[in-house]
Amino acid sequence: MAAPRRSGALAALLLAAMLTIPAQAGRAQSLIRDAGIEHALRRLSAPLAAAAGLSARQLRVMVIRDSSLNAFVVDSRTIMIHSGLLLKLDSAAQLQAVLSHEMAHIANGHITRRLANLRSANTAAALGMALSAAVMATGNGKAGAGLAMGTASAAQRAFFAHTRAEESSADQAGVRYLARAGIDPNAMVEVLEIFRGQEVLGPSRQDPYVLTHPLSRDRLRALKGFAAVHGAKGDAEAGAQYWFLRARGKLGAFLQNPSFTLRKLGRDDGSEIAVMRRAIAYHRRPDTDAALREIDRLAAMRPADPFVQELRGQILLESRRFDAAVGAYARAVELAPAEPLILAGYGRALLALDTGPANRKALSALERARDRDPFDPRMLRDLAVARARAGQDGLASLAVAERYAVLGRLDDAAIHAERASGLLPRGSAGWLRAQDVLSIARQAAPGR
Asked: pLDDT tens-digit profile of 269-328?
C-alpha cells in the first residue's frame, strides 16, 4: 500500500518548522492570532500582492509576539512580523514598505534557493516547530501558546544572513510594488533609517532585522536612488492609515499596561480607535462594565463591523457572561461567516454553555474554523472537547495530536496520533491525518 500523502496543512507546518528564525535564548515567543488585526494586515497587503503578481487570497501576514524589531518570510505564502516592529512603525506606508520587501523575496524566488541551502547545510533537525498559532494575548497566561524554536547555530546564522544581492533585488522590486500600488516608495527608506547605525553594533546588540536584512551605506544610498526614480502615483487606498492605526492600536492595547493605554488616550478622544483601545484596557484591568460601555459606543459607530462584535464576544466570554457572548459571536459570524478566528470564538462561547444543542452548534462552528485555518491550537483544543462531548473519541484524539504538532510538542503529538489511529477506521480521512502527524514526528526524530 502506498504511503498516505501528507496533507497540505501539515506540509506547510513542516516547511515553517524548517524556515523559522530561532529565538534568542530565554525569550519566549508566540504567534498572536486576532481576527481584527489579521484582517487589517490583509487590507494593507492586498494592493502590494497584486503589484507583485502574488495571490492576495493565499498570502498570510502573521504577528509574532516579540518586542524586538524584525520581519521575515516563512514560505511562499507566509510573512511574519514582530509585534515590536509593528508598534514601532509610524505609518501604513512604512508597514507596507516592510511587506513589499518581504513579498519581493517571495516573488523573486529567494525562498526556493534558501530551502536548497538549508537542505545542503543539513540544519533542519536543529530548527524547532514554528507555525504555532495562539489566541490574542490578553494578559491571561493560559491564552498564549509557546512558539517552539530551535537553538541558534553557526549554520543557521549563515543561512538566514541574506546575501547583499538578494537584499538589493528585494529593495528594487519592493520599491516598484509600492509605486504600482500608489504608495510613496520613500517609506522604505524611512524604515531602513530606523535601523541606521546598527551595523556598527555587535550581533548580540542588534535587532534581528539587521541580522536578517544586512544594512550598509551603499544599500541605503541605492535604495534612495530607487525611491527617487519611482514616484508615488498618489492613488493609494484612502483607508490604509486607518487600518494601520487600528491594527497597531489593538495590538498595543492588548500588550501594553492598561493604565498606560488609558493615560495616553485621555478621556476626550472619542475616535473609533481610541474607543476600541479604551474598551480593551478596561477589560484587562478588569472593569467589565466600563469595557462594555466603550464597546457599545464602538458598535454604535460601526454597526456592521464583525470585528467589533467579535471583540464584544471576547470581552463577554472572558468575563463569564456566556449567553451574551454567544449572542455577540453569533452576530459576528452573521457578518463574516467565513472568518475562521470568529468561528472559533463562536464555538468556544457555545462550549461554555455546555448544553446539548450548544455543543452540537459548537462542533459545527469549530469544524468550519479548522477547515479554513488549521494552525490555531486553542481552536484545536476546543474542537477536541466538542468531539469528545459528541462521542467522537478518535477524532477528539486527532485534534489533540494536531494541536501538539502545531505547538511543536511532537512526542505528545505522536502519542495521541497513535491513539487516534487505533480508534479511527483504517483509510478514513481522520486516520490519514493521524498518519500525517506520525510522519512528521518521525521525520523530526528519526530514531523513534
From this structure: 899 999 999 999 999 999 999 999 999 999 999 999 999 999 999 999 999 999 999 999
The set of cell numbers assigned to 341 is 478566528
- How many structural domains is the chain composed of? 1
**Could you check whether the bond before residue 286 is cis, i.e. omega within 30 degrees of 0?**
yes
Q: How many CA atoms lie within 13 A of 282 on its CB side?
A: 21
Cell of 7: 496533507
Domain-embedded: residue 70: yes
pLDDT tens-digit series, residues 224-237: 887 788 765 555 56
Q: Which domain holds residue 100?
A: 8-229
* In contact, 16 and 130? CB cutoff 8 Å: yes
The SS3 assignment for 33 reads strand
**pLDDT score for 387:** 98
Q: Is residue 340 part of a domain?
A: no
Q: Is 149 left (phi over 0), alpha (psi -120 to 50) or beta?
A: beta
Among 339, 281, 279, 275, smallest CA distance to 307 is for: 339
Please check whether residue 308 lies inside any domain of the structure: no
The C-alpha cell at 100 is 513589499
At 212 the pLDDT is 55
Structure confidence at residue 232 (pLDDT): 57
The CATH number that applies at residue 115 is 3.30.2010.10
**Does residue 358 lie in a domain region?**
no
Integer Cα distance of 38 and 60 in angstroms: 8
pLDDT number for residue 228: 80
- Helices and strands in the chain: count of H runs, count of E runs: 22, 5
Mean pLDDT of 165-190: 87
